[in-house]
Amino acid sequence: MEGIKDRVAIIGMGCTKFGERWDVDGLDLLVEACYEAYEDAGIGPNDIQAAWLGTVGSFSTGQPLAQALKLNYIPITRVENACATATDAFRNACYAVAAGIYDIALAAGVEKLKDSGFTGLALARPPSTEVEPAVPPPAQFAFAATRYFHHYGIPYEEGKRILAQIAVKNHHNGALHPKAHLRREITVEQALKAPMIAWPLGLFDCCGVSDGAAAAIITRPDIARSMGRDHILVKGLGVAVGGMQGLLLDDYDFVHFPENLAAAQRAYEESGIRNPRQEIDLAEVHDCFTITELIIYEDLGFSPRGKAREDVEAGSFTVGEGDLPVNPDGGLKCFGHPIGASGLRMIYEVYNQLLGRAGPRQLKKADIGITHNLGGRPGSFTASVAVFGRPS
Q1: With CB atoms 3.0 to 4.6 Å apart as the test, which of 121, 212, 272, 344 could cross-link to 18 if both were Cys?
Q2: Which of 15, 83, 206, 288 is catalytic?
Q3: Are 218 and 350 found together in one domain?
Q4: What's the CA dihedral at 323, 388, 36, 61 to 10 degrees?
Q5: What residues have CB less than 8 Å from 380, skipping those under 6 apart?
Q6: What is the DSSP code string of 301-342?
Q7: Is the domain of 347 the same as that of 293?
Q8: Cα 237 to Cα 258: distance, rounded to the nearest angstrom
Q9: CATH number of the domain that 158 lies in?
Q10: What domain range is 34 assigned to?
């Protein structure tokens, strides 16, 4: 089976400032992100041959992208796949370009959550019996935290301190990014003493709900070279969708997420990565909660099972002293989480790091980077992993 490796190049990207964007609507956000991507790629709207729009709750068709950008009757497909929505929109655009159907395509993701009137993620809910207990996302991942602590014999105080260190790391990184939502550094003690949201997860263990958009313009590598554009290459793409197996099985352990394993395996095999910890230079992962990031370290092969806490204590995933910086832009925790845009926001950071454009966050070595998304709940997720590299 022929894979995606080195068949698609990103020649332009854009990202809005994330946050409480009361002054704009979803169309404005798309214009802001896409026109930055146009300028970066050195092209205009008439060069786009097809587009994919990722959004969960803001729009129901692809038409708003055409309206915002005044695109002239090109095919536009709306994509929704939980928190992996933006990466899946990007994946679909990549496959179309790799297949030779289009030369230049656009992938955009957007979400306008702060105007929804809903205090959390404004997601569609299926009809229910109305008798089951309410299990919002903080409670769902609190189950994973308590089980992880129990499974590996971690005392509550130690577990909380490990999670607090992850929050401190991401807030430090995000404070350096001008487009991040929550640009504020915090201390371990502040994280430990913060109000409890769903025991043992406190306020600083949970990511923010944000407005925002991001976009990527992709083409074939030969076209990118002929245009003389700086670009990065797609090395591997993996998506895995659960079918509630964990929720139906009595022995589901809540300390690993099988969808992560499957998506990572596919992306690693396609890109030729055999030792993730040694071969990957940076990772943008789906830190919707600090416990999620801790488990992701192990699911993606960065840490041995049950040993991620030791790597956190050693600073292995920090910018500067760490050998594998994770979420150098602040992650969902600090940059924010407009669902339909987050995956492309992650790619935006990897793109800028690999091209040496990350400013004060720039890593000394940035040749291979990955992004990871995780949508759903422990026991049934949609997971995506994408691998990117610099041209040889």
Answers
A1: 212
A2: 83
A3: no
A4: -120
A5: 242, 243, 244, 245, 246, 247
A6: TSS-TT-HHHHHHHTTTSTTT-SS-B-TT-HHHHH---GGGH
A7: yes
A8: 17
A9: 3.40.47.10
A10: 9-118+211-227
Q: Which of 181, 256, 337, 372 is catalytic?
A: 337
Verify that 291 and 201 share a domain, yes or no.
yes
| Domain identity same for 281 and 164 | yes
Q: Is residue 51 part of a domain?
A: yes
The pLDDT tens digits of the residues spanning 71-102 come to 989 999 999 999 999 999 999 999 999 999 99
Longest pairwise C-alpha distance within the chain: 61
The verdict on 188 and 305 lying in the same domain is yes
Whether residue 148 is found in the same domain as residue 110: no
pLDDT in tens, 116-163: 666 666 555 555 555 555 678 899 999 999 999 999 999 999 999 999
* Amino acid letter, residue 317: F
- Global confidence as pTM: 0.95
CA separation for the pair 83, 80 (Å, rounded)? 8
CB atoms within 10 A of CB 247: 12
Reply yes or no on whether 83 is catalytic: yes
CA-closest candidate to residue 16, choices 283, 216, 287, 211: 211
How far apart, in whole angstroms, are the C-alpha atoms of residue 247 and residue 299? 19
Examine the domain organization and report whether 86 and 37 are in the same domain.
yes
Nearest to 255 by CA among 164, 159, 333: 159
